[in-house]
Amino acid sequence: MAIDKVQLFSIPVSDQDRARDFYVGVLGLELVADTQMGPDMRWVMVSPAGAQTAMTLVTWFPTMPPGSLKGIVLETGDLDGDVTRFRAAGVDIPGGIEAAPWGRFVQFNDPDGNGIVLQASAGS
To answer: What's the CATH number where 29 sits?
Structure first.
């Protein structure tokens, strides 16, 4: 038996509505699910269009406080356009676009402080 994909990972947030609005409305991800799972648990899942891996926006893991996740790496084919669009939506992108051997990237945080890297591979 072999592991053949990453299905999902959890992003700790303080307010699922605010996080959903950011990941869907600002970043442009698709809302895959938004389902009440019980009186104190809601399953909110987002994903890039066509991706095999999704992200759940969670509030229920006591060992994962909101803003504690760093290194969420997202890929784009239009880094310049996305940076312009995100800034217009109020996203603080300190430092601007940086270059690295693998491509160009920016770093910013979601509303809770979870760290996101948006990158465009070399040649894109």
So the answer is: 3.10.180.10
3-state SS of 62-124 is CCCCCCCCCCEEEECCCHHHHHHHHHHCCCCCCCCCEEECCEEEEEEECCCCCEEEEEEECCC
- Whose tokens are 């699922």? That residue is 16
Q: Report residue 123 as tokens.
A: 């040649």
* pLDDT value, residue 116: 98
36 within some domain: yes
Contact 114, 106 (CB under 8 A): no
- Hey, what are 51's tokens? 């991706």
Count the domains in the chain: 1
What is the model's pTM? 0.93
Domain ranges, residue 48: 8-121
In the numeric block, which tokens belong to residue 19?
């996080």
CA distance linking residue 72 with residue 107, whole number of Å:
10
**Average pLDDT estimate for 68-89:** 96
Residue 76 vs residues 6, 11, 59, 73, 117: alpha-carbon distances, Å: 19, 20, 27, 10, 10
23: helix, strand or coil: helix
